[in-house]
Amino acid sequence: MARFRRRMWITLLLFLLFVFGIMMGLKTLKPExxxxxxxxxxxxxxxxxxxxxxxxxxxxLPNIEKSSESRTLPPPPHLKTSEHFGMMxxxxxxxxxxxxxxxxxxxxxxxYYSWYGNQQFDGKYIHWNHPLVxxxxxxxxxSYPKGRHIPPEDIGASFYPELxxxxxxxxxxxxxxxxxxxxxxxxVLALSWYPPGLSDENGEPTEDLVPVILEAADKYQLKVxxxxxxxxxxxxxxxxxxxxxIDKYGSHPAFYRHKTSTGRYLPMFYIYDSYLISPGSWADxxxxxxxxxxxxxxxxxxxxxxxxxxxxxxxxxxxxxDGMYTYFATNGFSHGSSHxxxxxxxxxxxxxxxxxxxxVGPGYIDTSIRAWNNHNTRxxxxxxxxxxxxxxxxxxxPEIITITSFNEWHEGTQIEKAVPKKSSQxxxxxxxxxxxxxxLELTRKWAEKFRSEKEQWLx
Length: 459
Fold this sequence. Notes:
Mean pLDDT: 85
Number of helices: 12
Number of strands: 12
Shape: globular
Radius of gyration: 27 Å
Helix content: 25-40%
Number of domains: 1
Low-confidence stretches: 24-91
CATH superfamily: Glycosidases
Distance between the termini: 98 Å
CATH topology: TIM Barrel
Strand content: 5-15%
């Protein structure tokens, strides 16, 4: 009996020691949710605090990355500091982590704008508060409202972004855009570009964002080319500005180079409103015998002019350009943007060793900033307008197709995700009955069709 009691006490003592050991072990563990997740100490890290505030703001927006219909996407890779660029640089993404995306088509380019700003990242709204542009005829102008938009409920657009009135400086927004671009199989974004210190009349300088966009694009195996805007003094400074771009960004893995028929890999520049400079002045830069020729130098490139009027065909040839693009998403607005002219333009280009790059768009509506311009509105017809433009572009067998645009919200040409929204004074257009990514899906479908048909052309 005494032996039994002794064994019982020993067993009880061992049990108590076991329980005590478990309690001490648990005490050393960090409770779930402790650390940055509970907000403690965020005030010591301004950048994290800033992003946390933006995260709370986005939680109030409808359907952002919450739709059960949306494609499941991987979380953004870990951020790390790059001393070289003095910015946040994301760690490389392995090829295997991109397997769920479709293959990119580097012959499909889209025009991309980084001119948007908001209170959280820029201290004020930029471009979302676009003014109402008056008609040039004072009598007509007097019939339309004046003033400017007041974000975030009232923005200078007829559609409303799924990401809200965002800032182009927000790293999360840039990453989300790259995911959308890659998801649409678009290979190249043509970045709207102004030299350092310059911008459009409604914006702020954004040239410092180029390294950030290049890094973000490279994560998703995308490339960046440049859409040179018509800034003041362009005729006199373009030579040095092109050298600046190539010297500063030309070695970056995301810097786009196009393989020519001779096997050279050259940068490409789209030159918006190229007709503002005379063919003779362009020839100084773009002809082999020009006084400031870029040809056969380390700064040689493919220079693509904008064709608006029919006469521009010969002027572009005379100026020494390598090709022409049409930009405008309004079928019938200009000679160049009229679909029925594309075959004739392509024939002219073929006979003169020029590239013809048609621009397709999902529709057009800019009445939020040009209230008097409703005659140029082109209804999206639930995606049929876009598919008609893409189909017409493929018929002329172009080497490259451009999309106007990824995010030019003022003119309603965006393929970026948009959501239904109603303010106290305005009901925004939307993509219903389709989901917010319908134009990304359509782009992905036609990117593959373009790839497969091009393979047949080259056989």
